[in-house]
Design brief:
four-stranded antiparallel beta sheet; 16 strands; Aminopeptidase; 408 residues; eight-stranded mixed beta sheet; alpha/beta; Alpha-Beta Plaits
């Protein structure tokens, strides 16, 4: 790096702020994604759009082996930074299988029963915008360390597309990784930060119960499967919660229970399905064994045979304290100390956690609520939308983090 470049980086204001022209382009890009949402591992149009824009900036993105999603390096050619490793920025690019219910919106989804109702279009645009800014800094000799852009598919699909991306080598050489997630409770222009766990683990559970049925007049000659299913539904969550430290927040919640076809017939089959959520990563690692044992105990008590399908989802996102502090410093440098607020641990799951099983990193909650807006459009609802000024905020957060990290 030239002495002039060193002086620009250390001389007060950080380079890399967005101009109005790029902000307008990114808003247009986000709206195009919003109008054309694609489900996990089907994000072909989205992948093509990201790839075209990165290539137009002189970069060389690589489509992931699964066929969607990309990885793109900036300055990983020996001309940026030192040998400490790569700083990665991650976005998730998939949408949800729900209808877009926004009215009077020019960019609402054009795909039936598909919507970017979790803000992944914003996440994608933020990482794209940061990549374009950092590529320009690299061209000018102002990028002090190598950067990797990760556009990950299938975040909404358990156990998440992060595992495929990691297997494809997106973390090779990476030293730190950061991401944002839209938060409709936080005003635009602000981010929420929390060291340690910021989301919960989320697994899926499916249980089948079987036994000889019969006439409801003679339940003693049958396996009373409806009663057995009811006891599993009621007793197992209580047993699970009592077999770990209550502070771990291990909770089993059923979303479906089904059995029988006639009022006077004891059925031979019953099914239950639900989710297992956990705030503590060590308790999450024990959860499958605990849940299996509790179900087997209750089912055996009622003479029912149980078949359990426990689908590992994602562990909690556990923010590294040092990387969290870096994001705090970056946001403060761009927007002032008042632009950062604390945030609570969410019970939602996020497969960004899989990256943090390998390298330190942090997830920030990106404020997308317009100041003064009384209606909070929550995530995973068809009317969700974001104040698009958050795009600039996210881009500047990431660019500042890259520059400040290199200076540490």
């Amino acid at each position: 790096m030239s002495p002039e470049s060193e002086a620009e980086l250390s001389g007060g204001a950080l380079p890399g702020a967005l101009n109005e022209e790029l902000h307008a382009e990114l808003v247009s890009f986000r709206r195009d994604l919003h109008m054309h949402p694609e489900l996990g591992n089907q994000e072909f149009r989205t992948t093509a759009a990201i790839k075209e824009r990165l290539e137009r900036a002189g970069l060389a993105p690589r489509v992931l082996a699964v066929g969607t999603g990309l990885v793109c390096d900036i300055g990983v050619d020996g001309t940026a930074g030192d040998d400490r490793g790569i700083f990665a920025l991650r976005a998730d690019i998939d949408a949800l299988p729900i209808p877009d219910t926004k009215s009077e919106c020019s960019y609402r989804s054009t795909v039936p029963d598909r919507a970017h109702a979790c803000g992944h279009d914003v996440h994608t645009t933020v990482v794209l915008g940061a990549g374009l800014v950092l590529a320009e800094l690299h061209r000018r000799g102002l990028l002090p360390q190598p950067v990797r852009l990760v556009f990950q598919p299938a975040e909404e699909v358990l156990p998440g597309g992060a595992a495929d991306a990691i297997e494809d080598g997106v973390l090779d050489g990476v030293r730190r990784i950061v991401a944002v997630h839209c938060d409709p409770r936080v005003e635009v222009g602000r981010v929420g930060l929390r060291p340690g766990p910021i989301t919960s683990a989320c697994d899926r559970l499916e249980v089948a119960l079987d036994g000889p049925g019969g006439h409801t007049a003679r339940p003693h000659l049958t396996t009373d499967l409806v009663t057995a299913a009811a006891r599993v539904a009621i007793d197992v969550p209580a047993l699970v919660a009592r077999r770990v430290d209550t502070r771990s927040g291990l909770a089993l919640t059923w979303g479906r229970i089904e059995s029988g076809h006639a009022p006077n017939v004891v059925p031979q089959h019953a099914e239950l399905s639900g989710t297992v959520r956990c705030l503590d990563i060590e308790a999450w690692r024990q959860a499958p064994d605990i849940v299996h044992a509790a179900i087997d105990e209750v089912a055996t008590m009622h003479r029912a045979k149980s078949e359990i399908n426990y689908v590992r989802g994602v562990p909690p996102v556990v923010n590294d304290p040092d990387v969290t502090e870096l994001l705090r410093d970056a946001m403060t440098a761009r927007r002032g100390a008042d632009s950062v607020e604390g945030t609570e641990q969410s019970l939602g799951g996020e497969d960004f956690s899989w990256y943090l099983e390998h390298v330190p990193g942090a997830l920030a909650r990106l404020g997308v609520r317009t100041p003064g807006e009384r209606t909070v459009r929550d995530l995973h609802q068809g009317d969700f939308d974001a104040d698009e000024r958050a795009i600039t905020v996210g881009v500047e957060l990431f660019t500042a983090a890259v520059l400040l990290d290199a200076a540490q």
